[in-house]
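Appendix C: a fully annotated inverse folding record. The material below is reproduced so that readers can follow the format used throughout the book. The structure is listed first as C-alpha cells, followed by the designed sequence.
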C-alpha cells in the first residue's frame, strides 16, 4: 500500500535504515523550488518536492501545469550540524524554524504527504486546518493514512498538514474508505508513532 511504501522508502532511500537523518523544510526563492531540489539532489541529498497538476488558461487554450503543493518550500533530509552546503545552494533562503535550531518535520507527516502524491488521487493545496473530524483511511491507495475529513461541493477530501509550515493539502477520496478516529485517541503525528499498518 502507498502509505506503507512511503514509510519504508523513507528509511531505505536514506541508506540509514535504523536512524535516518531528519527532514527539514527549506524556504526557497519564488519559483525556485525545482532548481533547488535538483541542485540538492545532485549533491547527494534526499529531497521531496510534492507537486500537483492544475489546469491554467494560456492565451487561447487551457494547459495542464505541474505546480508545487507547498509553494516556496521543499523538504530535505540532512544533518543540521552540516547545513552549510544546503544554505549555499542556489535559491535556498533559509531553513524553516528557529534560527538557533530549526525543528525537523515529523517523519509521519512527510510519509503522509508522499503517500498522497504517489496515490495519484486528485490533490491540491488547502487552507491550513487544525480542527475537524479526524479520520483514518481503511481502503484505497491511502489505507493507513490519517487526516481531517472535509466536504466541499459534494466531494469528500482528506486534509493533511505540515504543522511547521502551517499549510495543508487535500486529496479527493471515496467516502467509503474512511472511519472516524475516536475522540481522545491521539493521532499518529501527535504521538510521534507510525500507524500500526505502516509499522508492520
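Designed amino acids, in order:
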Amino acid at each position: 500500500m502507498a502509505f506503507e511504501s512511503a514509510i519504508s522508502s523513507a528509511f531505505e532511500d536514506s541508506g540509514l535504515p535504523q536512524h535516518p537523518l531528519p527532514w527539514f523544510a527549506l524556504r526557497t526563492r519564488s519559483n525556485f523550488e525545482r532548481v533547488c531540489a535538483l541542485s540538492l539532489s545532485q549533491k547527494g541529498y534526499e529531497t521531496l518536492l510534492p507537486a500537483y497538476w492544475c489546469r491554467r488558461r494560456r492565451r487561447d487554450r487551457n494547459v495542464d501545469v505541474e505546480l508545487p503543493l507547498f509553494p516556496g518550500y521543499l523538504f530535505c533530509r540532512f544533518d543540521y550540524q552540516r547545513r552549510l552546503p544546503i544554505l549555499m545552494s542556489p535559491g535556498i533562503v533559509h531553513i524553516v524554524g528557529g534560527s538557533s535550531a530549526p525543528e525537523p518535520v515529523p517523519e509521519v507527516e512527510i510519509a503522509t504527504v508522499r503517500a498522497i502524491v504517489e496515490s495519484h488521487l486528485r490533490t491540491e493545496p488547502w487552507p491550513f486546518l487544525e480542527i475537524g473530524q479526524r479520520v483514518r483511511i481503511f481502503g484505497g491507495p491511502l489505507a493507513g493514512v490519517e487526516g481531517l475529513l472535509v466536504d466541499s461541493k459534494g466531494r469528500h477530501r482528506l486534509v493533511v498538514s505540515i504543522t511547521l509550515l502551517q499549510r495543508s493539502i487535500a486529496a479527493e477520496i471515496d467516502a467509503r474508505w474512511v472511519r472516524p478516529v475516536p475522540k481522545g485517541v491521539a493521532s499518529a503525528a501527535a504521538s510521534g508513532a507510525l500507524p500500526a499498518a505502516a509499522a508492520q
